[in-house]
Amino acid sequence: MKLSIRKSIATVGVAALVATGVLVSVPAANAAEPTCTTSKTGLETCTGTLANGAGYQFKMPFNFKGTMFFWEHGIRWTYPGVSPVPTGVEQIAPSSVNGNFDISKEMLLAGYGLATYDGTVKGLRGWNSAYRIDMIKELIDIASAKYPKIEKKVLYGASQAGSTITPFVEKYPTYADSVGIMAGVTPSIADAVQSACDIFYILSVFADPTIKGCAAFGLKGVPGHMASLGELQKVVALLGAWSKNLGAPGLEYPAALKGSGIPQRSALLLTGLLSGIPTKSAHMDGISTNAVIAEHSINATVAVLENIGSALGSGVLAGQSLSEITGAGFYDNTKTNWASLLDEGDAGRYNLGLSGDEAITAMLGVLSMAPRVTGDAAAIAKFKALDKSSFTSQHPTILLHNEADRLVFPGQTVRYVDRKREVYEKALSSWEKTRTGKKPIWNTLALWTLTPETYTKFTAAGLPDLTGPVAASGVDHESFTKKQLKAWVDMLAVAAKSGKVPTDAYVEYIATKVPYLNGDLDFRPADLKYNFGY
Amino acid sequence: MNAVKNRASLSRSPRKFAAVISAALVGALALSAMPAQGASTPGVSDTEIVLGMQLPQTGPASPGYNKVDDAMRAYFDYVNSKGGVYGRKITLVAYDDEYKAGKTVTTASKLINKDKVFAMVGSVGTQTHISVIKDINRRGIPDLFVNSGYSGFYTDPKKYPTTFGALGTYVAEAKILGKYIKENLATKNVGILYQTDDFGRNTVEGLTTAGVTFTPKKTAATFIAGTQAGGLDAQMQQLKDNNVEVVVVGAVASAFAAAVGSANKIGYKPQYIVISVGSDATTFQTILFTKGIPFASSGALLAGTISASHAPSPGEADDEFVKAFKKINDEFNKGPATGKTWDNNVLQGMNIGYVTTAALMGAGKDLTRPGIINYIKNNPAKLSSAAFAPLGYSATTHEAFTGFWIGKYDAATVLKPIDGTRKVWTTDSAKGAVTELKYTRPAIAADALPKVG
User: Fold this and answer.
1) Could you tell me the CA-to-CA distances from B78 to B91, B327, B360 in Å, in that order?
2) In which domain, by residue range, is B366 found?
3) Which of A357, B152, B163, B205 is deepest in the core (most CB within 10 A)?
């Protein structure tokens, strides 16, 4: 069987082979003055370097209307000598991975100014959120000095940027008038990485006992990098086998389940459900069936198969990078209650894919009895304390997330809204007791982009086609349509002027104009599996 | 999970915001027709109440169940012909989820966001409904009279406060059937065939509570729900090999039909005792018909099967509810000819329509979502129906009918009281005893409309 998730596995594999996360303290120097040129159309482009040598760029259109957008890119995996190191700015506006475009042209036409910087300067890469806060401040200071005509500042970014932007606006509240987070992580990243590490662990129990996963992370530099890649390669080998046989053979591990008749795909699906991997993917809608994909839960299993490579790739890269901050042993599952991680609804909905209640009980039973990973107390404490935020910012904040983001799971945005809500309600309750000072306002909005209802295609042989065009919306990481991205930045611009996020009615209206933008403001995808607090 | 909304409502007019943003928007986002802002209860206007429903209208799981929505709509149309409820006509929007949970999720979203339903009502299926029940409850949407007997939906109202059942639970029904087995079939070798999910687990739980137990891999045969289409040959062979004389079936009707088909092939003819939703005659016969067994023959295969029911059999032509509902069905059911054929599914649909109407009347003219939930929870005695048992709703449980009578299918596929006299038994979904129920079903009014005053 030639089920091609090879492309995504290959992508992950290549990314992993060239990646690592290293934090290097970059000495400060004097920032250089920007060098500017103006095109025939009146677009001024300026480049320069921040004090630490990082490149930055401004684009100022002739029709500038007073709002400057400051873009914060996501994580970058570069390692001198192993992979290309960015030599300057790569991205100045929101872009779409699947569409291979950005919306800088559209934003400039609308009269928005654009600014960004390169967060990967001189070895400053991987999980470098703490360092980038001062870089953003410097960028905004330079832009504000050069362009006194800036009236409103929008600070926005993608993915890892969520863990940078959120504490930044709490530390420097006057540096932004509105905030945008696209497919972003919510501080702290530990909530999500714990699940990524769980994936390794569960696969080690059910599929390959040689997998050590996050327990193998912690060495610095190339040795650590290679150790993490070794772990990833074991999983890539597994996925390669499953891509050919759809996980049909019976479980070989652990001994207690060998010969039980539980297919490997049930363990794969359980792994996905316990760790929160989306059950829709680029090609699998979780609904469509045929002779081979005989039931919707089998479709969802293939979706997990298609998503898990990316999820684990990011887990490896982020995990190794984090381990260089925390030290070895940040992952610990001695207190994990595996059964509690399986949502009751998922157990019912995907019952056939999981091979029924008896198989679910057997697999959870094995997990509960398997030897656990005991971490290092100091590393665990550092891990859970990463990227802390107070969520007290009252800036209008608009989040944008795909409902089936395979890398930064949608539960991240759910978590952001929940934390903001909790802080807001406490503040409101406190204000109501005294009625003094400024009344807290709710100023956060999550926009969701959905998949089409069905989009799975089958090959002539009846297999799911994982090589064709991906779903029109709602899947993958940092992948949106132009209309979706433009709607988001327009809302951010107006929110910067008004000081408030758009009304429900307005969002519902825009959703009727932008395909697959969800107008349901109460939409709530699955939660993250862990919550270590904030 | 706390009921956390994405965002709070803002008091600012959307028109004001629109005026600000219009300068920034280009192309497709240009504003032309901003919607009016309303704060009324979704799905309720001065003239209409919109209700939503999800069920398999097509696909392998649809036979029989696909008649419930047309029957409900027929009853609502009848109510509308009499002026509706406080002058509001009832509109039922039903979507086909094909018994695929992914579609249940998307159709629920459509009902909530596009159709703006006031409440969900009569949705069919355990595996499908479990995919949306948490979200429906989180949003505070009434989730009324669900066609599933899974006790997990109802026995903890703190978990699912807006959900109310339309059937007795599988646990209670199994306990009652278990008592019958203990008292009447104690000398027989009793086995079970069940699906390894919530339904099957509920069945085993009820039987075990009643003292009827089984030996795994010998007198207990299992299958994974969804795999029965290919037959249940191995399971029935296992039960035959272990000399099982009485087979309790805790499974959906398509599985029961598959089991009988498989048993028939090997000349195995045990006494079947089937949880009621699994013994629906229409579903049973339709599925066997697709496998080449004509209706006359499948009727014979069903004959003698023991099952239970909370309501009269559709074949009880003299029952006043049957008579009234059948008349309404003949006049108002606009479903396809086969769909409106009078049977247990149509009766169930009519009965849900009747109870829903009563709840809407009881909740009063100022209809709100919390209002109808509170009314149902606090006034189950005012919600009479065709059932021979009262509704069990209270602050501590949202289980529906608490009583069942036991019957046997005759050659005409009519379930008739097993000893000629209908005795209704009652129990709970926990460890309570099974006792005879003394309940007098309130009569149906001459106009066949519920009276809640």
Assistant:
1) 12, 10, 15
2) 48-168+313-402
3) B163
